[in-house]
Amino acid sequence: MNVQKLQAEIDSYRMCTPMSSELQEKAARYLPGGSSRGTAYFDPYPHFVSEGKGSYIYDVDGNKYLDFMINATSLILGHAHPDISAVVKDQIDLGAAYSGPTTSQIDLAEILCSRIPSVDTIRFTNSGTEATMMAIRAARKYTDKEKIVKIEGGYHGSHEYVSVSVYTPAHKLNPAGPTAVPEYGGQPINVSNEVFVVEYNDAIGMLDILESNSDDIACVIMEPVISSFGYTPASKDYLETVRSKTRELGIVLIFDEVQSFRLSSGGAQEYFGVVPDMTALGKIIGGGLAVGAFGGKREIMDCFNPTDGGAEIAHAGTFNANPITMRAGMVVMQHLTPDVYSQINNLGEELRAKLSAVFSELNITTQITGIGSFFGIHFTENEISNYRDVITTDPTVKKAFFLGMLNEGILLNGLSGSLNIFSTTENINELASAVRRVAIRLFK
Ligand SMILES: Cc1ncc(COP(=O)(O)O)c(C=O)c1O
User: How many CB atoms lie within 10 A of CB 163?
Assistant: First the structure.
């Protein structure tokens, strides 16, 4: 693909979004690059959103987009679901947040504990970042060990110890295999010294690190379905190997299910039948409001127990378990029945099959990844198994394709996405037709 094709997509996008362009200029006066959130920015500038309804969002220039980004998979009931609006409005009038607990946190905790195999008890936070941070802290306290193991290219939020080897550019990767690469200049070297980085789906590499350093490793944190690789599931064998080795060596296994929890009523751990010691959650469990949670075995979580002499790990949070979020989250859980999971996951399968069919008909080499209601598109010959496979996609192609889809009225999350409960076969056909048109524009 030549760069003129990318430029043509940028020009079309600019033509349709003059007001967003102006707002970006204004925003840049007060926010660095006009942005408060890395993933909300894209070049040349993001479209500013005015409204969301069901599967669609609208921008300030009046463009309508079929939304497969749905705020980074969090809006599994779509935008502005009336049941969510109703409880939020009701709770606002009763008070947004109090310093004391409410019954709503028991309700959401009860349903999450009953659904997720690894979760005996749970604590709520306001983000997935806090959830993974506190889960790691609990694992360190429980094991009295310091080091952590994470996957190369795995994202677990923006706190320090997981800000290692996340978006490592190709030229910084050690050809001999994963090493801990700081995410930013000036990061204390002690941080990456505390982190072992392993390749996804590489059981031998994982076992080697675990066995050689078991006296120092507190936990392994990983996604059973890794979001940043277009929702590539780990192989079941790999997960089982990691599970049994961590158990044998006294290492806490943390599944980051901030995204993968939508796979089944008990998350990816139920889907694969592999139960970790701790689980981090976020996204869908807050009904579209800021949320996170972490939970696990009672004996590990007990370090947060404030009764009986006080908690061993202090964990506060002004808005933790606030009743608006708890009630919105409860609405989501009530909507996610076994039938709904089947429907949305079957639709995901249909979507991936249709994308594969489009590319094979056009003779364009791609890898379509995903599971359940997730999908990812990769313009590479490499079957996607780890980070090094993912980054073989040419960034210019990625950018052009994303903008091309936007110009077709389809919003993706990079080149991946997920469905919501209102997604239909017609939506999928619309996506597949747009993919076809953009692929022809860019590659033919
Ligand atoms: C797998 C995973 N873990 C953790 C996080 C962090 O969650 P939050 O953005 O709510 O801090 C994210 C966010 O995208 C995520 O995808």
Answer: 19
Nearest residue to 109 via CA among 273, 276, 304, 239: 304
For residue 128, which atom of ligand 1 is closest to its CA? 7
Number of compact structural domains in the chain: 2
**15 and 112 assigned to the same domain:** no
pLDDT on residue 218 = 98
Q: Which of 335, 355, 370 is the last residue of a domain?
A: 335
Quick check: pTM over 0.85? yes
CATH number at residue 147: 3.40.640.10
The tens digit of pLDDT for each residue in 381-438 reads 999 999 999 998 899 999 999 999 999 999 999 999 999 999 999 999 999 999 999 9
- Expressed as residue numbers, the domain containing 371 is 3-76+337-443
The verdict on 67 and 113 lying in the same domain is no
Mutate to test the pocket of ligand 1, among 124, 221, 283, 416 (most ligand atoms within 8 A of CB): 283
pLDDT, mean over the chain: 97
Q: Among 300, 335, 370, give the residue marking a domain's end.
A: 335
> How many Å lie between the centroid of ligand 1 and the Cα of residue 59?
25
Rounded (10°) angle between helices 18-30 and 3-16: 90
Mutate to test the pocket of ligand 1, among 156, 232, 289, 319 (most ligand atoms within 8 A of CB): 156
Q: End-to-end alpha-carbon separation of the chain, Å? A: 9
The CA 74 to ligand 1 mean position distance, Å, reads 10
Q: How far is CA 329 from the centre of its chain?
A: 17
